[in-house]
Amino acid sequence: MSALRIRKKRIQGGFGITYLGFDLKLDARIAVKEYYPIGLALRNPGSTMVTVSNAEQGESFKTGAEKFYNEAKMVAKFNGNPNIVSVHDFFYENDTVYFVMGYLQGQTLKSYMKKKTVTEGQAVNIFQQISNALLASHGMNILHRDISPDNIMLCDDGSIRLLDFGAARQVMAEQSQSLSVILKQGFAPLEQYQQKGKQGAWTDIYALGATIYNALTTDMLTDPIIHPSWDSCDIHDRSAGAKQQY
Ligand SMILES: Nc1ncnc2c1ncn2[C@@H]1O[C@H](COP(=O)(O)OP(=O)(O)O)[C@@H](O)[C@H]1O
Ligand SMILES: [Mg+2]
What we know:
Layout: E1 4-12, E2 16-23, E3 28-35, E4 41-42, E5 51-52, H1 58-76, E6 87-93, E7 96-102, E8 106-108, H2 109-115, H3 120-139, E9 152-155, E10 160-162, H4 167-175, H5 179-182, H6 201-217, H7 232-240
Magnesium ion binds next to loops.
């Protein structure tokens, strides 16, 4: 990372930390995301190295890191897509994985909604732009799994881009009891509450619908209805650890 200057600003999410910084070689602002899954990763004060908090979960950490790396590699193939954040680089360092993105000047839909009302025209535009992003990613068999207002950037140049693809999220889903890490209440469909739920393009489309509904009404959809014939125990158990993080 010698050619990158990282500023202090950090945003901690469920399985990564986003830093804002500057690429000295490209002479451009960047955003860098570090694989740092909450509850699994640990960093000793004064050190840059990332270690696993619990040796038993070493395999999950490693699998997540590989997924994170491979996904950065795949998202980089979308470079040039006007609706998806661009990825400049990805690499292993400090015993974890990083990917470097082009810096997007603007604000997330979530921040925008705190200040202004989204009009129907804006909502339809967002729907169309993010649908284009999903068509591209689903075409490469990549699910986003976390479509929500904080992962949609309304850029100052008028473009609308999708952030935060999450293959590593699936690994977390398999080993984590904390739903807040792997799904966003009010946006996630039923199948994300189920350990064996079948996820597909429809999972992202549901969340996009929920996002547009939220943008227009500021209300959130209620959690998916639990029907007796579905694996409700599973849903109930896993929901117990969930925190409303949105
Ligand atoms: N390329 C980028 N340019 C500018 N800001 C970004 C960029 N990527 C992420 N951010 C900011 O960082 C926040 C967190 O990034 P994100 O990839 O969504 O990670 P997570 O939700 O896992 O923390 C975003 O909501 C956005 O505010
Ligand atoms: Mg995010």
